[in-house]
Amino acid sequence: MPTFQYRARTRTGASEDGQLEAPDRRQAAQRLTAKGLHPLSLKVVQEQHSKASKVWEQVLEKFAALSPQKNKSSGDGSPRSGGSSKKEKTGLTFLQRLLELHSSGLPAGDSVKILSQRLSQPELKTLAQKLWRDLSEGSTLASALARQPNYFNSSSTYVIEAGEATGNLVPILTKVIDYLEEKQAIRRKMLASMLYPAFICTVAVGVVILFLTVLLPQIQGMLERLGSEMTWSAKLLIGGADLLVQFGPFVLIGLAVTALALRQWRQTETGRARTDAWLLRVPLLGKIALHGDLFQLGNLVSTLLQSGINTTETLQLTERTVNNRALRERFHIARQQVNEGLSIAQAFRRNALMPDLALDVLAVGENTGNLAQSMTEVTKGFRQELTQRLERLTTLVSTGALVAAFLLVTLIAIGIVTSVFQVSQSLSI
After folding, report:
1. Can you give the pTM of this predicted structure?
2. Which residues have C-beta within 8 Å of that of residue 219, sequence separation ≥ 6?
3. Is residue 72 part of a domain?
4. Residue 86 has pLDDT above 70, yes or no
């Protein structure tokens, strides 16, 4: 049985070092928790490693090896987070079917084999066949999933690898599926929240352009034939419409070129870092981006902790899944501070990773030994806050578009009515 060198934090906040024997890292962490200690690091000091311990180390080594120089699947230096939304949804569906079979007692390999034969959807069937081919050649389930990065993101595959190592694949799969379902729900919510504002803006812009380029010039010609002219406000709008017709295509081309250049610049290290930092400071959008990242971060952390992974390894696995570079840098510093003996709540507070109320909840969870549950509750709060901010943004954008369109149309209508009134007065004289 291997011996582990540990560093842990007592309930009073003090750091404690020592050794203990345990079959693997997970059980070592559990024994420390049972003693009222919060594990910060665990290292094997004997050469004889358990199978689970070896796999844990391999997982962390693989994750640490995903550097910007070696990882070519992503332009930002982070592990590939998955493919398109459609492919990620297909991967989620596969995991759901796999869980149904595996939870009934069928081995994971046999479950994949049955799915490769019985699934009817072409893309899903092809995916299952590829996975079964890899499994039949000796690959583990996690390794097979990792070879399909468009369908399964790196964080999910590493968690599943941990589940295979500890023999707790069913609860791990359940938690991974819950995490991916939550992620998909948030994505659908964000897309749905922007559809209505986009529709309103499109209609408003269309109405304004129609008034300026078609209706208003016709009314101007009619008034000129009657010996009158438009008011100064209407003339101003007509002048703006003429400029729009003349230079509008060039403006659109310029905007397209600028957007393409910004996109290319964002692919660089400097561009990604600066745009991510800038995004967090943008009113409304910054808070939405922050709470979206915090929701995914908290969900993954709670999933890993509930799966029996200790705090140190959980933070290591989570760090590279943070999309925003600025937030990831803060998380990295916080993780180092945790390794040095700070509590998670203290480290997160020093680096302004989460709101104070959320950190207070995490502090209570750490002191009571219920960090995973506290992180789950905090994550629920992040989702609620994200939903509220998305609804607020939807309302604001929709209202702003309607108000702007109303003001422009009202200004045009006033100009027309005033001009017609002037014509009627001149004709009556």
Report:
1. 0.63
2. 230, 416, 419
3. no
4. yes
